[in-house]
Write a structure and sequence with these properties.
The protein is an alpha/beta fold. The chain has nine helices and eight strands. It has helices spanning about 5-10, 20, 35-40, 65-80, 95-105, 115-120, 145-150, 170, 175-185; strands spanning about 45-50, 55-60, 60-65, 90, 110-115, 125-130, 155-165, 190. It has a six-stranded parallel beta sheet. A two-stranded antiparallel sheet has the order 2-3. The longest helix has 16 residues, at about 65-80. It is globular.
Length: about 190
């Protein structure tokens, strides 16, 4: 799982330690179905999920309720298939979005924190909410390569980026475009309703 940050931020020089290199997500015996099947499949270790929803401005910050609901649905699907909630971390860039995600995850044992709070932490499954979704393709402070590095390098087994169904993340900045292109070449792109 270190391939994305290695290629996008460290010119291929970052390598996963041997003890985590071959770890894979294990679901209970049932087969995932419906629109989340491909997203949660253990073999899909790198997934971009396009969500059709617009950002909501809150003062100088942003929220995205549609992304929050998609994340809640994804987390429910993981839990339904036996994934321990302590093995899932959700990250978002903006505090209003973190609050909304935490409210829809209430009672699941999964919580959302800011990218800054994930610095130095890691988990088996990371779900990154990009929050921003706008016609001007503006990512705000998530344009900072350092934040994108932290946000996309905390996973041990699976990274799911939940972003807009349009081009905000793909065209937001050079670094987000590099991440988007890497996922397009090595991972899965899916859209949920």
């Amino acid at each position: 799982m270190s391939t994305l940050p290695s290629r996008c931020f460290y010119y291929g020089a970052l390598h996963a330690p041997q003890e985590v290199r071959n770890r894979r997500l294990v679901l209970d015996g049932s087969t995932p179905t419906g629109q989340f099947r491909e997203i949660i499949r253990p073999e899909n270790t790198l997934v971009y999920v396009g969500v059709n929803g617009r950002e909501l401005e809150e003062g100088l910050s942003y929220d995205n309720q549609r992304q929050a609901m998609a994340i809640a649905d994804l987390c429910s699907e993981f839990l339904r298939h036996g994934v321990d909630p302590t093995k899932i971390s959700v990250i978002a860039a903006y505090r209003p979005h973190v609050r909304t995600i935490n409210s829809v995850l209430d009672g699941t044992g999964i919580s959302c924190s800011t990218v800054h709070r994930m610095l130095g932490a890691e988990n088996d499954i990371i779900i990154l909410a990009t929050t921003r979704s706008n016609s001007s393709r503006e990512l705000g402070f998530m344009r900072q390569p350092e934040l994108l590095n932290v946000a996309t390098s905390r996973q041990l087994m699976k990274l799911i980026v939940v972003g807009d169904g349009g081009e905000t993340f793909a065209e937001g900045c050079v670094t987000s475009r590099r991440i988007h292109d890497f996922i397009a070449s090595r991972g899965s792109f899916l859209t949920i309703n």
